[in-house]
């Protein structure tokens, strides 16, 4: 997003040290397909025929993406942009001639995306870009899920916890919230499919929805034992070869010898493939700081997950995308 350079921006550009935020936003400036994403929103965006002209779509996308990258609430996003010159440069905002869009404007834009299912469209458009660049191969899928905590408090207008969420036990720890289920590319770890359920839904129940139908093999952890025998899998994906991790107790029970060593070697290979699916979860939870569901209900949270995984895919693939753009 190009704009006339202000005195503050000139002073910022003259400094010797490049901050991590500045470097990250500079990379995202190059790898996000802005024109393609703007085209998705144009048919649903206000035309500004009456009243005050609407803020440009690209600027609103930049604000929305900043909110996802840094885990900010609407009001916190507004404050952060006032505080950070790097963010203002990224969004093309010059405080000498204009103010930062307020929290209500960001809220309304997010509601627009949710109403027209544009978050999923953004996710699919990013996937299409990665496929075009030969980064998303779709020959094999890794299936996994992670728990996203939700607020357990009843101090709200309804005086109750979110009815769409549920509690589940993992190990010896109870969790209240939802699950994010993903199907990731076996070669790159890039996410091609996302679903969301209450936390008490078994991981295996979503497997059929996470396969795109063109893969030859699927890898899962031990929680998916027996998935190939389920009716929905036989009818929808009869040719997929499943590689399910064996339970530790089963391997441990084998007698010492070559047979056990062969099983252990096989499980190690499976684990090395499945490890790639942890990268998108790492980006969401550690880089984007998305550890708790921000909204009530699965619909709004799934919309945010689509945006988050679209942006996570760009982060994972940014080195290859930057190399291709420089070539």
Structural class: alpha/beta
How far from one another are the termini? 22 Å
Order of helices and strands: HHHHHHHHEEEEHEHEHHHH
The major beta sheet can be summarized as: 6 strands, mixed
Q: Quick one: how many beta strands?
A: 6
Tally of helical runs: 14
Uncertain segments of ≥5 residues (pLDDT<50)? none
Our Rg estimate from Cα atoms comes to: 22 Å
Shape verdict:
globular
Helix content: 40-55%
User: Average pLDDT value?
Assistant: 92
- Which range does the strand content fall in? 5-15%
What's the structural blueprint in terms of helices and strands?
Blueprint: H1 7-14, H2 20-31, H3 34-41, H4 57-69, H5 74-83, H6 85-91, H7 103-115, H8 118-132, E1 140-149, E2 166-170, E3 173-185, E4 191-198, H9 207-210, E5 217-220, H10 231-236, E6 241-244, H11 248-252, H12 258-274, H13 278-287, H14 298-326
Parallel strand pairs: 1-5, 5-6
Antiparallel strand pairs: 1-3, 2-3, 3-4
Summarize the structure.
With 327 residues, the protein is of the alpha/beta class.
Structure description:
The protein contains 14 helices and 6 strands. With 327 residues, the chain is of the alpha/beta class. Strands 1, 2, 3, 4, 5 and 6 form a 6-stranded mixed β-sheet that branches. A hairpin with a 2-residue loop joins strand 2 and strand 3 (173-185). Helix 8 runs parallel beside helix 14 (298-326). The model has no long low-confidence stretch (mean pLDDT 92).
């Amino acid at each position: 997003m190009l704009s006339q350079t202000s005195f503050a921006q000139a002073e910022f550009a003259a400094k010797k040290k490049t901050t991590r935020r500045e470097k990250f936003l500079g990379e995202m400036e190059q790898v996000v397909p802005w024109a393609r994403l703007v085209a998705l929103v144009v048919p649903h965006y206000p035309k500004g025929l009456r009243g005050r002209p609407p803020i440009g779509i690209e600027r609103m996308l930049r604000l929305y993406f900043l909110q996802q990258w840094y885990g900010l609430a609407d009001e916190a996003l507004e404050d952060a942009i006032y505080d950070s010159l790097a963010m203002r440069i990224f969004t093309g905002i010059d405080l000498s001639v204009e103010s930062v869009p307020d929290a209500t404007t960001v809220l309304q834009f997010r509601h627009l995306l949710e109403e027209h299912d544009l978050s999923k469209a953004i996710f699919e458009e990013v996937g299409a870009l990665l496929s075009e660049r030969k980064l998303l191969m779709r020959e094999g899928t890794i299936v996994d899920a992670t728990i996203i905590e939700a607020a357990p408090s009843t101090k709200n207008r309804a005086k109750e916890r979110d009815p769409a969420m549920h509690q589940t036990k993992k190990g010896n720890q109870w969790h209240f919230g939802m699950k994010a289920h993903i199907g990731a590319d076996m070669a790159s770890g890039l996410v091609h499919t996302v679903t969301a359920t209450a936390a008490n839904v078994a991981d295996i129940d979503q497997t059929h929805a996470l396969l795109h139908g063109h893969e030859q093999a699927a890898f899962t952890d031990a929680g998916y034992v027996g998935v190939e025998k389920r009716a929905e899998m036989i009818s929808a994906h009869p040719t997929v070869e499943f590689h399910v991790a064996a339970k530790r107790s089963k391997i441990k029970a084998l007698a010492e010898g070559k047979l056990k060593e062969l099983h252990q070697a096989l499980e190690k290979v499976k684990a090395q493939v499945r490890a790639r699916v942890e990268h998108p979860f790492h980006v969401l939870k550690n880089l984007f700081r998305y550890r708790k569901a921000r909204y009530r209900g699965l619909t709004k949270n799934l919309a945010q997950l689509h945006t988050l995984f679209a942006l996570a895919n760009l982060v994972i693939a940014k080195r290859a995308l930057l190399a291709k753009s420089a070539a």
